[in-house]
Amino acid sequence: MSDDFLLDTDDLSKRMDGAIANLRVELASLRTGRGSGSMLEPIMVDAYGSMTPINQVGTVNVPEPRMVTINVWDKGLVGKVEKAIRESGLGINPQLNGTIIMLPIPELNEERRRELTKVAAGYAESARVSIRNIRRDGMDQIKKAKNDGMSEDDQKIWEEEVQDMTNTHIKKVDETLENKQSEIMQV
């Protein structure tokens, strides 16, 4: 490899790992018929003029497998939290009890399970696109170095390394998606 060109493969790998970590957070938000506090993590509430994570405006609890509760600290935000949950696409109908919002988790039917697997597939595709964009950044750096005098052999070696890294991360995305889809389809 060329002595004067060094591609920061650690940076590319960290960015690809970040795309996979983001995918795992998004997949955790998909409910599988059981209540979980993590299913509310991506929901943002318009609180005090800025978008705030739901767990920063109230306490999220799971008192039983099919129930999630949010004890909103500021009574004035209860309506905004309820609205954010309704608009989140979780398919849960919040019930108000003072400052406590109860989220009964309905049993998933076959049709809803299939919908959720499609949503999970969409999240995975977004992660794949992110990984491919990171690969493109690496390839652009390699092309720039080629224009600056890197040999074709070195260019091929670097491109293969970036492509191998990309393939490994895409495979992790596919495995993560497969695990989540089997979890969703499990009755």
UniProtKB/TrEMBL annotation:
<dbReference type="InterPro" id="IPR036191">
    <property type="entry name" value="RRF_sf"/>
</dbReference>
<dbReference type="GO" id="GO:0043023">
    <property type="term" value="F:ribosomal large subunit binding"/>
</dbReference>
<keyword id="KW-0648">Protein biosynthesis</keyword>
<dbReference type="Pfam" id="PF01765">
    <property type="entry name" value="RRF"/>
</dbReference>
<comment type="similarity">
    <text>Belongs to the RRF family.</text>
</comment>
<dbReference type="InterPro" id="IPR002661">
    <property type="entry name" value="Ribosome_recyc_fac"/>
</dbReference>
<dbReference type="InterPro" id="IPR023584">
    <property type="entry name" value="Ribosome_recyc_fac_dom"/>
</dbReference>
<protein>
    <recommendedName>
        <fullName>Ribosome-recycling factor</fullName>
    </recommendedName>
</protein>
<dbReference type="GO" id="GO:0002184">
    <property type="term" value="P:cytoplasmic translational termination"/>
</dbReference>
<dbReference type="GO" id="GO:0005829">
    <property type="term" value="C:cytosol"/>
</dbReference>
<keyword id="KW-0963">Cytoplasm</keyword>
<comment type="function">
    <text>Responsible for the release of ribosomes from messenger RNA at the termination of protein biosynthesis. May increase the efficiency of translation by recycling ribosomes from one round of translation to another.</text>
</comment>
<feature type="domain" description="Ribosome recycling factor">
    <location>
        <begin position="24"/>
        <end position="185"/>
    </location>
</feature>
